[in-house]
């Protein structure tokens, strides 16, 4: 049974149920998804590092996405598993603020890397003769550095304005992690307006990313439709459609999770949306990218056979 004490500086994460059996079921399901996410993302990281055939910018950015996914799911799920197993949903103020920082940082970084990946596909398909010049290793490194730095800035902004809020009342969070919309309900005054301001600014930045991605794919598809060979079109679609699906899934679930009004009596749908947004994408992304990518499948086969560790030398272009 979840305890009712939050202490002076803590919060109570209610999770999905106070039933001990359902808590154990939740812990088991989260553990399975967490291990699957870590395993699949680290496999992507390993093969894109070791396989000399996977040293193009596309796979370099995919490696960064996998690193972000593994980090993103580690922010919330292990804490939730521990809470479910111990029956104690208490989380300290410091832990909660760290969750806010890392969750928002990694969320924005994922949006940024997906935008960079769409630009990479745009250049590769629409300007293939200039691809190596435009996407050279130094520019790849700068783009990835910008992704991580911008994520850190967004997380710092969110944490700073959240720290400025004075919380009062029963600090019970109807969620399995410290979700900002839930935290705003505990504000004693209008000091939450700074959070809304930061959220509005980041929403505008996300809109700019979305427009950039849409622009890239409009040009990609117009170029693909002019390819006379059906085999050529199929090859292009095999690299673009997984990325488009990941982008659409991430954006749609994020919009649903954060634009819906918060409720004092959350429904099962609210909890499912949070799972779909925070847990499912990091688990599915490496699987989606691997389904129709023959190079990744071949590299995975070599990894399973141990070929990388019997004399193969890794070549790194963008690392």
Oligomer: single chain
Task: Give the strand order of the largest sheet, numbering strands 1, 2, ... along the chain.
Answer: 2-1-3
- Per DSSP, what share of the residues sits in E-state strands of 2 or more residues? under 5%
Query: What gap, in angstroms, lies between the N and C termini?
Result: 48 Å
The total beta strand count reads 3
What count of helical segments does DSSP give?
11
List the helices and strands in order: EHHEHHHEHHHHHH
What share of residues is helical? over 70%
The rounded Rg comes to 21 Å
Q: Which residues form runs of ≥5 with pLDDT under 50?
A: 1-8, 311-319
Report the principal-axis shape. globular
Structural class call reads mainly alpha
Mean pLDDT over the full residue set: 82
Question: Can you walk through the features of this model?
Answer:
- This protein is mostly helical and 319 residues long.
- The chain has helices spanning 20-50, 57-86, 93-126, 131-134, 137-163, 180-184, 193-224, 230-259, 268-278, 280-291, 294-305; strands at 10-13, 90-92, 172-173.
- Helix 3 (93-126) packs parallel to helix 7 (193-224) and helix 8 packs antiparallel against helix 10.
Give me some keywords for this one:
3% strand, 319 residues, 3 strands, disordered N terminus, mainly alpha, 71% helix
Briefly summarize what is shown:
This protein has helices at 20-50, 57-86, 93-126, 131-134, 137-163, 180-184, 193-224, 230-259, 268-278, 280-291, 294-305; strands at 10-13, 90-92, 172-173. The protein has 319 residues and is mainly alpha-helical.
């Amino acid at each position: 049974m979840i305890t009712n004490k939050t202490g002076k500086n803590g919060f109570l994460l209610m999770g999905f149920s106070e039933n001990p059996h359902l808590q154990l079921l939740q812990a088991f399901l989260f553990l399975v998804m967490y291990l699957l996410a870590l395993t699949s993302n680290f496999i992507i990281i390993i093969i894109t590092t070791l396989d000399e055939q996977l040293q193009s910018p596309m796979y370099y950015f995919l490696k960064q996405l996998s690193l972000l996914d593994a980090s993103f799911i580690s922010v919330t799920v292990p804490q939730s598993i521990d809470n479910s197993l111990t029956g104690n949903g208490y989380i300290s103020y410091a832990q909660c603020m760290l969750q806010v920082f890392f969750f928002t940082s990694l969320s924005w970084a994922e949006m940024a890397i997906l935008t960079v990946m769409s630009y990479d596909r745009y250049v590769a398909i629409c300007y293939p003769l200039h691809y190596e010049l435009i996407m050279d290793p130094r520019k790849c490194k700068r783009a990835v550095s910008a992704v991580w730095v911008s994520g850190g800035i967004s997380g710092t902004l969110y944490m700073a304005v959240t720290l400025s809020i004075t919380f009062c009342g029963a600090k019970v969070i109807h969620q399995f992690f410290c979700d900002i919309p839930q935290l705003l309900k505990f504000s004693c005054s209008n000091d939450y307006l700074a959070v809304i301001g930061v959220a509005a600014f980041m929403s505008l930045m996300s809109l700019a990313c979305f427009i950039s991605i849409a622009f890239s794919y409009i040009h990609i598809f117009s170029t693909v439709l002019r390819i006379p060979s059906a085999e050529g079109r199929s090859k292009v679609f095999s690299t673009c459609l997984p990325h488009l699906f990941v982008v659409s899934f991430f954006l749609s679930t994020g919009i649903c999770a954060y634009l819906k009004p918060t409720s004092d009596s959350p429904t099962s749908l609210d909890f499912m949306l949070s799972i779909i947004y925070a847990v499912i994408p990091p688990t599915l992304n490496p699987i989606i990218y691997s389904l129709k990518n023959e190079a990744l499948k071949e590299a995975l086969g070599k990894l399973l056979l141990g070929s990388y560790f019997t004399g193969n030398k890794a070549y790194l272009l963008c690392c």
